[in-house]
Amino acid sequence: MALDMKPFDAKSAPKISDKDFEQLRDYIYNVCGIYFHSSKKYFLESRLARRMEGTGCKTHADYYQFVRSPATGRSELSKLLDEITTNETCFFRNMPQLNALENKFLPEIVAAKGKIGFKKLRIWSAGSSSGEEAYTMAMILLEKRQTLLKDWIIEIVGTDINETVLAQAREGVYNSYSVRNTPDYYLKKYFKEEAPGKFVLSPEVKKLATFSQLNLYDDNKMLFMKSFDFIFCANVLIYFDTSSKSKVVQHFYNNLQPYGYFFVGQSESLHGVNDKFKTVHFPGGFTYNK
Fold first, then answer.
1. CA 266, CA 235: separation in Å to the nearest integer?
2. Same domain, 55 and 106
3. Which residue of 82, 125, 153, 188 is 20 to 30 Å from 115, comparing CA positions?
4. Of all residues in the chain, what percent carry a pLDDT higher than 90?
5. Among the three residues 30, 61, 84, which one is the final residue of a domain in this structure?
């Protein structure tokens, strides 16, 4: 279908009909498991307006065909997903969780793996956004390099569906808001303030983490995310309905080592989603293991 690609004023975007909303909502859901309840109709409408402006589509029906087109769909879907996913994060976001990792769960796993002589630690930050969570763990582990983790191989993998934030993660440059919770010790040791409010992460931290695009709803790609000691997935499951959550969480279960731990956000829970995990409490929070 030929589309008029003249500049489009987002303010003049048509209201989305129930039919178009359901059609686009269902398409997004089938692709990545993100579900928009009817109460989120205005949110999706506003995000679609930006993409309609970018593509020149005049109607939601035109945009639906555009995003599904073999010629334009793959690129456009990536841009649409960038619009509809929120990426609020910061360094050292959940201190009770990080303290438990450092002081309880990390020594426990190191001892277990050390007994069999397998000195390799794998951590997955799922929904890593612009990298703050993955790099926070990298800094914590670097502090153990001469003691607990001496001679250990450390792999930290960050994944996200949003290509824009992944590019930011690889760059490793942050603003004052991102580092607002960072303890002074870590801020002075692992960042360089090149300009007021511009903090550049040290190469030593960056080389511990790799980042790649991943749709958690993609069964084939999730099969390759194997053998993790820790999986962090904070404030990601909120995007999914119960069915999607169950599917994604089962992948996490399969990809976690038998003695590993699975962390979610402070306000999230696996209750009613997956009964294979056991809840493990620690001061200020909880995690899950098999």
1. 8
2. no
3. 125
4. 82
5. 84
Averaged over 195-202, what is the pLDDT?
A: 97
Cα–Cα distance for residue pair 226/257, rounded to 1 Å: 8
Query: Which residue, chain included where needed, has tokens 């506003």?
Result: 46
Query: Rounded to the nearest 5°, which phi and psi values hold at 235?
Result: 60, 35
Is there a domain that residue 1 lies in?
no
Tell the burial category of 276 from Cβ atoms under 10 Å away from its Cβ (0-12, 13-18, 19+). exposed
In 3D space, the residue among 86, 75, 76 whose CA is nearest the CA of residue 24 turns out to be: 76
Q: Are residues 69 and 104 in the same domain?
A: no
pLDDT at 12: 55
pLDDT digits (tens, 9 = 90+) for 122-177: 999 999 999 999 999 999 999 999 999 999 999 999 999 999 999 999 999 999 99
* Residue appearing with tokens 């992948």: 251
CA–CA dist 234, 267 (Å, integer) = 9
Q: CA 62 to CA 56: how far, in whole Å?
A: 9
What is the C-alpha to C-alpha distance for residues 49 and 20, in angstroms, rounded to an integer? 13
| Closest CA relative to residue 124, chosen from 207, 210, 190 | 210
**Contacts (Cβ under 8 Å, ≥6 apart) of 241:** 29, 33, 35
Mean pLDDT along residues 45-51? 92
Domain count, the chain: 2
- Looking at the predicted structure, is the pLDDT value of residue 2 above 50? no
Phi and psi dihedrals of 7, rounded to 5?
Answer: -55, 140
